[in-house]
Amino acid sequence: MRPPVPVPALSRRAKSFIGIVAVLLVLSTVIGTLTNVYVDYLWFDETNYTEVFWTEVQTRALLFAVAGLATGGLTALAVYLAYRFRPTFRPMSLEQQNLERYRQSLEPRRKVVLTGIAVVLGLFAGFAAQGSWQTWLTFRNATDFGRTDPQFGKDISFFVFDYPFYRLALGFAFAIVLLSLIGSVLTHYVFGGLRLQTPGQKLTGAARVQLSVLLGLFVALKAVAYWLDRYGTVYSGRGNVFTGASYTDVNALLPAKNILVFVAAICAIAFFANIFFRNTLLPAAALVLLLLSSLVIGVAYPAIVQQFVVRPSADQKEAAYIERAIASTRDAYGLSDIEYVDYGTNTGTGQETGTDAGTDVASTPTPADLAADTETIRNARLLDPNVLQATFLARQQIRNVYGFPAKLDIDRYTTDGTTQDYVVAARELDSSALSGNQTNWINEHTVYTHGNGFVAAPANQVVSGEAGGEPNFTTGDLPTQGNIPVDQSRVYYGELLNVNGADEYSVVGAAGNDSPREFDQPESGSAGQVNNTYDGNGGVSIGSFFRQLTFAIHYRERNFLLSGAVNDNSKVLYVRDPRDRVEKAAPYLQVDGDPYPAVVEGRIVWIVDAYTTSDAYPYSSLQSLGEATNDSLTGTGTSALPNDQVNYVRNSVKATVDAYDGTVDLYAFDDTNPDPVLETYAKAFPGTIKPSSAISDELRSHFRYPEDLFKLQRDVLTQYHVDNPKDFYNANDFWQVPSDPTENTADSQPPYYVLSQRVSEGNATFQLTSALNALNRENLSAYMAVSSDPSTYGEIQVLQLPGNTQFRGPTQVFQSFNTNSEVRTQLTLFDSASSQAVFGNLLTLPIGTNGLLYVEPLYVAGTGENSFPLLQKVLVNYGDRVGYADTFAGALDQVFGDGAGDAAADSGTAPAPTTPTTPPSGTASPTTPAPDTGNGTDTSARDRAVADINAALTALADAQRSGNFAAIGQAQSDLQAAIAAYEAANPAANGQGAAATTPPPATPTG
Domain residue spans in the chain? Predict the structure, then answer.
């Protein structure tokens, strides 16, 4: 026998060095972790959400301890028992001689090794378990749904709250038994209890007993797993086109699982019996029986049924189960109570287009078609919040330290008894715009600490005259003034305070040299500035040295200790993005990607929609949250949601964040239809969610139906509006979300907020709307709208268009705009070296009971650094007619006839149209395009007009760059005059005008 190999020993100096390094690493990690936890606690204490902090910490600690002790302790116990009952004498063999050196190496260190195994495994298990703290809390505080699943008759709460926890616990039990089994086998092998190559007995009695018990436990857990697998069929994807138990699952897999439960139980008994009967054939036979049963009964039999029974007539076999999936999916996504309206059934409305529509000439639109929808026409939105940031910056930025989000917001206010939708924005601090000396620590964190002001412009108006095409800012400037009263206009919390994921903190509340330090606003009438000292309730006090040291470590910034800008009165404001604050205060909620500011009782508050979600609702279709809510605007002013898989969602919470003091309020939005998921979390975090009765009427009047929820619902509705199971299986009458034609991208068209009349209603309400195309086609199939009005909030109305006519979808309408002769000619002029055309959002507005009106603003922006878009034209489509004019009213007159645009908001103040138009008629006569010369074309005048247009565009770009408002107005007037001169000198450019996208069929005359 070879002597044992000696273990190399470390010198005393090496041991000391390694010990010091280890201590420093541990101290650094511990101090950093404790500092972060303490800073988190201070934030929760400031916002009065310590209940959330302590509940989460305690739950994580409990799961960490239980899972860690169970995994590490039981595994170590199994290894210890294997060592404890090792054979005293081992037969001499080559195998045992080779193992002897390992035994001699381990023997002096067995306690250290055993402890190390327990600690390492316990840490891994603990860290894995503590991440499932919400699973335990929901199981512990589960609330019944009051509805049962159709297969097992269990309340939905069993699947949403109980089943995930049972699966989690079972997974850890399997892991513990498996680790114990591996540890025991290795220990028995090393210490002679298991002899693979030694002649004679292979297992000692102690090893046989221990391994039999562990294998019996493993197989017993497998029996439990088979039992839980039965309930897992409600998430089956075997049906391919739907989610939930299919024909094969119910009629083949469920009986198989029941049988396997008993087979596994019998096999477990066989392993336990091997403790008394020293016969390895019994457990071996049991194991073979289990494997064969699981393959034949659990896999082969369901596959045969699926292939030979279901597949040949799947639409019939799966019908009952598809009905379950449709009903459950609608319920899970809040789509059970939709008002479906058959719309556009009168085919004489002029909506048909293309060869599929037949050869009948569409009837002529008339002003009467608009008579019932004057509120829709009056409130038609001309300002696109997605393209106007540059305009808001040019007109309302005031100083470079201020900014607006890339995507502005739409909200509505009632002034002088009239409700109007507005493009709104808070004038925030934009730390990324600081430059030069503004970027040192003092200025970044103690001087430029907040934004100031609220800006609003009616969404259906633009100003005329020298500032033509600009928003009409009815609230703005500094100090803030206008028709929306703002008492506290300072913005310390906002969307621009989270730059590239980094929290922008500010140190406030400390006056410098007994005078205010924080920049507040420019001083009126001079080049100076007004400073301010924060006196709000927000922020964490850092008056003590310990607090200052804490934040110095947390932010790795020594100025917390050295700077004179930090004193006994100082506070730190952090976690200042409204979404981040809500997510931190309620980590169990999913937050909408687009918070918006509103003025409520004279204060600016951020309204944040929050959702309760689950991925365990039975029979409901799983959706990727990130993919379903992605559209052409995601990431440009709105935050993308994570790609979590969900099959249940409710907008159960409306949250507000005060822009001045950061107060976070969570409101249970709907007390009449309580959400069991929210009720469950309310039990877990008592006192953190306010009841719906605490919502003031003024705050409620600003609630919008959230965009991300709407996008998720419309994605589900493209399939799950179908009632007939056979049609659903064959994908008949499926819809799809259209792509956004204005962005030239395959991304989905975003939904749009509009203030318009619902079908058969006389008053305009604030709605979120979307067009829906036919599957794999560009024709329109449906129009979806949901109300945000307090009295009808959440009511979804879907206008279903007849399938036997071809209604234009958004892409087709946009193409008709671009191919119109007059539009195409002017786009060529607008898209030049000094300017570019910018298409706004393409809105779809139902008119009457049969027609769809498309409205799109057209902006022109210079190409200079400080240029901004101005509204120059409005495009309108109804049926096969296109209107194109300086005003919405003018475009309506072109399509519907003189006087049709009188109801438009810009009918009285807009400048007179400079473009000759052709009144629409029932039967158009054939037209012949004019040649480039002749037929009235004045070549020299046309050339002069083109030169004047280019000169005006250049002057406009220069004026925008310099910020000379008078010069901008003059350049715009010159541009309008030059365009009019060009059209007067070149009649061929007008053709038919904008009354039709294509010449109608020739009509014999005379």
Answer: 57-202, 220-312, 337-378+709-911, 388-491, 576-704
